[in-house]
Amino acid sequence: MTDASAPAPRRPGEQALAALGLGAPDLSPADASPHTFPGGGRWRTEIPSCEGPEALAVVLKEASRLDVPIHRISQGSGIWMLTDAEITEMVEATGERDIELCLFTGPRGTWDIGGSTRTDSRGGGLRARGHDAVAGCVEDAVRATELGVKCLLVADEGVLWTLHRARAAGIIPADTTLKVSALIGPVNPAAYAVYERLGGDSINVPSDLTLDHLTEIRRVSGAPMDMYIEAPDDLGGYIRMYEVAELIRRGAPLYLKFGLSKAPGIYPYGHHLRDLTLSTAKERVRRGRLALDLLERHGAAGDMAPLGSRLPGELNRFDIGS
Predict the structure, then answer these.
(1) Directed axis angle between helix 274-297 and helix 244-251, to 10°?
(2) Helix pair angle (211-218, 244-251), 10° resolution
(3) CB < 8 Å & 24+ apart, contacts of 60-68
(4) Integer CA distances (angstroms), 52 to 74, 228, 232, 271, in order
(5) Strands 151-154 and 202-204, bridge-based pairing
(6) Is 321 or 47 the better-scoring residue by pLDDT?
(7) Which one, of 308, 289, 265, lies nearest residue 49 by Cα?
(8) How far apart are CA 254 and CA 303, in angstroms?
């Protein structure tokens, strides 16, 4: 049902610019994504970089205060940086509110002994180097899912395929969702389709993709897309709040990720970073409120997926084989 009190959809500054003879061309229906989340809705929300139970409590309190709906909360330091008790506390807190909790798997390039990621070429990037790193990611995945975590964050194609095979084999629960990290996000439709087929249920694209790039991706894949509406500085520091409505129109089904620029890095998190982590967690929620306010002012806040929804729907996969 349409809310009769909601403002009519419009683009930022549309009426004023038209009155000055500077109106933009009409939007093309051909650019719009035809896809939605299962059960309806074209966008969900995510608060990233929630590095433990204390930061989670801050996020949940601030989200309640500012009336920010949350579908997913994710963590970046890694499962191995949390105790069983901490993971269980986070699982219970998010479960009470029907929010999906996503934790990062295993060792990755920046934190092992390989120096190539620190060269100008970036070497192998953030991927899992060698068998032991893949094994660590799998160990993390099994441990986290046994403790009730339902979403795993992955930054390596081999780990993604391995965990997809693991859930098909019943090693981890079949309803576990696999989220592809922004650290390896695809930048073209062919690559996006490959990540979907490798097992990605939610694929983070870099925040510097153009609107046309999103349309190109949506012509080949309906897999849920994640995008930082505000990206951390190490991912570019882009702030695209005024584009949110058009990002949804082009990129749906889309997770709106509320990151934070001009903030020091906090990975891997420890109590020595406590004050910074709690203050930035609170500010990420406020950034979410700002973006949602823009959507409401532009008459584009409709079509949010129901709170509590988390599954990606039917996706295309490579044949696992024997």
Answers:
(1) 80
(2) 20
(3) 60/93, 60/97, 62/281, 62/282, 62/285, 62/286, 63/285, 63/288, 66/285, 66/286, 66/288, 66/289, 67/289, 68/285, 68/288, 68/289, 68/292
(4) 10, 21, 19, 10
(5) unpaired
(6) 47
(7) 265
(8) 11
Residue 101 buriedness (CB in 10 A; 0-12 / 13-18 / 19+): buried
Q: Which residues contact 26 (CB under 8 A, 6 or more apart)?
A: none
| Measured distance CA(80)–CA(162) in Å, rounded | 19
Q: What is the pLDDT of residues 183-222, one digit of tens each?
A: 888 999 999 999 999 999 999 999 999 999 999 999 999 9
User: How high is the pLDDT of residue 173?
Assistant: 97
- Let me know the angle formed at the C-alpha of 231 by 148 and 91, rounded to the nearest 5 degrees: 10
Which positions ≥6 away from 43 have C-beta within 8 Å? 248, 252, 253, 254, 255, 256, 303, 304, 305
Q: What does pTM read for this prediction?
A: 0.91
Q: Which pair of tokens denotes residue 108?
A: 């990755």
